[in-house]
Amino acid sequence: MRITEMLRLVWLNIIQNKFKVILSSLGIMAGAATIVLVIAIGKGGEVEITKQFGELSAATIFVSLDESQRILHDKDVAQSERLNVEHVQQIKDENPYLKNIMLADSGNARVTLNGEEYNRTIQGVTPEYEQVLNLPALYGEGLTEKDEEDGAFVAVLGYDAATANYGAAEYAVGEYIIIHNMLFKVVGVLPKKGTNIGLILPDTSIFIPYSVGDTYIFSDISRPQVIALANDVSQVKSAMRWIRSSLHYLLFNGEAYMIEDAGSRMETAVQSAKIMSMILISVATIVFIVSGIGIMNVLFVSIKERTREIGILKALGCSERNIWLQFLLESITISFFGSLGGMLLSVFILPLMAYVEIPVLPSVSGQLAALFFSLLTGTAFGYYPAYRASRQKPIEALNYE
């Protein structure tokens, strides 16, 4: 039998049983849409992780109050001393594995920029922030040691904070802004990053000397964070051990502080994204198996209904291979239409993910993966029914009522 004739028979059988085909392909449709979502969520998670950590070096180390300790041992934590500039300097002096270290705290405050009042995030940082966070000024200059020591009322604006209020970022340099009813001079503007740096949003934040923020803006119960930069990624673990040792004698309860490196945070975030993807892949696999069983069932019923047709085809000289291929093509075609429906469905589902705050990134690879797994399901579950059809004896098939 010629392939064109075989394809025509396959198409006629599908048209004659279109409702049965549509119902059996619904599972494939759901599975294909799930596969597209899995790939999109995985890629979206990667982009989100990149945004969250931005240009942060893997050699970066964070020292902050452990919130679980705050809950379990609130009395001890309450007695813990706040990390201060002297602590940070001592940690740096005795740690041979650190390139630099900074102290930071943050809070929200009413800010007046060019006559407009906003609620902005204020970042109080020591001068080492430029190297530790890789944040050199684009215009003007950054915060200096003298600013920190003198408690100078100066500020560095994030790029978006500057352009939104002064038109061009460079125009903000030299202007005066009001933070918490205090007048600050803008001495610099940061370059646009477009991403987070750790938990800091540099584009919209306002940076001031840590000493000023600690004295006038941040609350007494806030817990500043230490951010350190190891000499090399290979020395991160050693640097963390030295920091832990320093905290033991510098603070009343050094165990209340958590020490993490950026690499571990990234790994944890990636692992969470992988777990979500694995759950969705498991769901998609179950859906494909169920839909494959449905296709197999439809083919078995179809073979029963078309037993005489099979006998006639064999009597006319059709080989077992032709019969097998015809029924297998029917199974693959059902899967193909199901995958197309699933891919079309995913086009409408993906935009809805924004409402549940799940990051997604549609891709061609997701669509191709959905098509591949759909066709694989059709082939795997259509093989045996097609084989059974091809093995029927012509005389028994012709005599079947």
Describe it for me?
- The structure is a single chain.
- The protein is α+β, with helices and mostly antiparallel strands and about 400 residues long.
- About 55% of the residues lie in helices and about 15% in strands.
- Strands 2-3-8-5-7-6 form a six-stranded mixed beta barrel.
- A hairpin with a 2-residue loop joins strand 6 and strand 7.
- Helix 1 packs across helix 13, helix 11 runs parallel beside helix 14 and helix 13 runs antiparallel to helix 14.
- It is elongated, with a radius of gyration of 33 Å.
- About 0% of the residues have low confidence.
What is the element layout, followed by pairings?
Blueprint: H1 3-16, H2 18-53, E1 60-65, H3 67-72, H4 74-79, H5 85-94, E2 98-113, E3 116-125, H6 129-132, E4 139-140, H7 145-150, E5 154-157, H8 159-166, E6 176-179, E7 182-189, E8 206-209, H9 210-217, E9 225-230, H10 236-250, E10 257-261, H11 262-305, H12 307-315, H13 320-349, H14 364-390, H15 394-398
Parallel strand pairs: 3-8, 5-7
Antiparallel strand pairs: 1-9, 1-10, 2-3, 2-6, 2-9, 4-7, 5-8, 6-7
Helix pairs in contact: 1-13, 2-11, 2-13, 2-14, 5-10, 11-14, 13-14
Count the DSSP helices. Answer: 15
Helix content: 55-70%
Terminal CA distance: 26 Å
Mean pLDDT: 82
User: What is the H/E string?
Assistant: HHEHHHEEHEHEHEEEHEHEHHHHH
Anisotropy-based shape: elongated
Query: For the report, how would you describe the main beta sheet?
Result: 6 strands, mixed, barrel
Q: Beta-sheet strand percentage? A: 15-25%
Low-confidence segments, ≥5 residues, pLDDT <50?
A: 71-79
Strand arrangement across the biggest beta sheet: 2-3-8-5-7-6
Radius of gyration, in Å, reads 33 Å
Specify the structural class.
alpha+beta
Give the total of beta strands: 10
